[in-house]
Amino acid sequence: MMYLFTEVVQKFLQHMQAIERSPETISGYSKDLEMFTRFMEKRYNGAFYIEEVKVSDLESFLEQLQRQGQAPASRSRRLYTLRSFFDYAYKKEFVKRNIALSVEPPKLQQKERTHLSESEVMQLVDAIEHPLIKLVVLTLYYTGLRISECLNLTLDTVDLDEKRIRVIAGKGNKDRTVPISDKLLPLLVEYVKKQRPKVSSNYFFATGKTGMLSPVYVNRVLGETVTKLKWKKKVTAHILRHSFASQLVKKEVNLVKIQKLLGHSSLKVTSIYTHSNIEELCEAVNVL
């Protein structure tokens, strides 16, 4: 029996929901597969069957993305989506093999992540005029949470008595517990007791108007503050997560502990944060 590519895509996305992949992951897969579908329909003048897709089609798709200026990391992610999709199709016997495994992935240049020093974080916080955003930025820096995880915290998942934050369904749909540091705890206690508006919203970081904050708004305030400081580096909420990890590495915290705090699936991802500035490298060679 022949199956239209779009039919199998729908089954794949339903499967992703059934195994409780996060909405963000499913949305990413959906967009990638929609992009590939449009490429193929233009290439072959209409709808096509999954068995008709060849390795050369996948390679041409990635080549087109490269010509369009997409970064290697973006192309690599789209290939990962196609591999996951064809792996599902192979296991369900829609195809005889996972052809995406035959495609060479784009070479990724390992770049050190941008991060802020401790003094830069404090300078940034001092320059932020919005009290709630100021607290969110400090929370991101002292916990290493992703911005979505931070803004989705509720009064139930932040346990100030036990000094713990429970991250529910983080990236990869995994839960984890992050301790609240001694520096952050009094700020959160003060916020809950005296500053948090009396609203029906259960979100921990609540505004009086909407009862919640959006990642876009937080990043906009960060961008405006960086402009005011006349910094040349781009600072987003995710840079604060990088900064958290980088400072822990600098203070010689074990990488396995950092991996658990960040919720990484492998140490390979965590090792990206092992920055070395030129002063540290100078000290290292002078040890000899």
TrEMBL record:
It holds the Pfam family Phage_int_SAM_1. PROSITE patterns: CB (PS51900), TYR_RECOMBINASE (PS51898). Signal peptide: none annotated. One of its GO terms (molecular function) is DNA binding. Residues 3-90 form the Core-binding (CB) domain. The keyword Ribosomal protein does not apply. Keywords: DNA integration, DNA recombination, DNA-binding. GO terms for biological process: DNA integration; DNA recombination. SUPFAM superfamilies: DNA breaking-rejoining enzymes. Residues 111-286 form the Tyr recombinase domain. Belongs to the 'phage' integrase family. This is Tyrosine recombinase. It comes from Brevibacillus panacihumi W25.
